[in-house]
Design a protein that fits this description.
One of its GO terms (molecular function) is catalytic activity. By secondary structure, the chain is of the alpha/beta class. 49% of the residues lie in helices and 16% in strands. It has a 6-stranded mixed beta sheet, with helices on both faces. Helix 1 packs parallel to helix 3, helix 2 packs antiparallel against helix 13 and helix 3 runs antiparallel to helix 12. The longest helix is centred in the middle third of the chain and has 20 residues.
């Protein structure tokens, strides 16, 4: 197996090579926070946006496999970063650019991406998890788009992919209410490709990644490219949703959302939006 020198700049993500050209991308959990879940702080957020460009250029990688370590796939955004975004225009503009790049870089990465999701799957990690070409979840996984609970629009990936995967009615139900979706239910409604028992999650993900890596690379990559034109055609919808999300970070609701999360209580948002 080849070395990982081209990824030497990555400090938050852990990268491991497997046979047949499979690159494992790990979002560390242990020590990330008290819950043992990977949290997308400023550095992690940037690396999650950038890694797909490097994978696309990596001659030794045929397939990327992304997973979380510890108690779950990903815990979502770091509240310290959220607070910076709410109070600092420059930070907000930088994170908007990274959020945009994360979505488009996964879509445009020529190599197929497999995700293996267990436990909670929230935030920037969930973007890659659901935009993966083949998404595999443990039946007990809890997929949550938490944007409206925080007080901002569901913008970082939801509008571009949830209606396509599970239909508009289900997308609105889960996104507007921030309802958790189990891995088993996510497979039933088409939000993920497969749901398996947690003990089978990584063996199944490795099996799928190996099958992709040993198949015709031109056929697989060109099929992915063509199918992802469905997502590219939804680009204006995604761009609008992302702009509205980041407009929300400059508004009053996000401050109450942050306070309620820190105080572990239901939010008490102010009156209706001014439109």
């Amino acid at each position: 197996m080849s070395d990982l020198s081209m990824y030497s700049g990555y400090k938050s993500l852990e990268l491991r090579r497997h046979p047949h050209g499979v690159l494992e991308v790990v979002m560390p959990g242990a020590g990330a926070n008290k819950s043992g879940l990977s949290t997308a702080d400023a550095n992690m957020h940037r690396e999650l946006a950038d890694i797909w460009r490097d994978i696309d250029r990596d001659p030794d990688t045929r397939v990327a496999l992304i997973r979380g370590e510890g108690k779950g796939f990903s815990a979502g955004g770091d509240l310290g970063l959220v607070e910076e975004m709410a109070n600092d225009f420059d930070v907000r503009a930088r994170v908007w650019r990274e959020a945009r790049d994360l979505v488009y870089n996964v879509i445009n990465c020529s190599k197929p991406v497999v995700s293996a999701m267990h436990g909670p799957a929230v935030g920037a990690g969930l973007v890659a998890g659901l935009l993966a070409d083949i998404s595999i979840a443990s039946k007990s996984a809890r997929i949550i788009d938490g944007h409206t609970r925080l007080g901002v629009a569901a913008g970082d990936h939801a509008a571009i992919v949830w209606p396509l995967l599970c239909g508009m009615a289900k997308a609105k139900y889960y996104l507007l209410l921030c309802e958790p979706v189990s891995g088993e239910e996510a497979e039933r409604i088409g939000l993920v490709s497969l749901a398996v028992d947690e003990s089978e999650l990584m063996p199944k993900a490795i099996e799928v990644a190996n099958r992709l890596a040993q198949g015709s690379q031109t056929a697989i990559r060109w099929t992915k490219y063509a199918l992802n034109n469905w997502l590219r055609s939804a680009g204006p919808t995604f761009d609008t949703s992302l702009a509205l999300e980041f407009m929300g970070f400059a508004g009053p609701d996000v401050h109450e959302g942050m306070r309620s999360l820190r105080e572990r209580r239901a939010p008490d948002f102010p009156g209706g939006a001014p439109f």
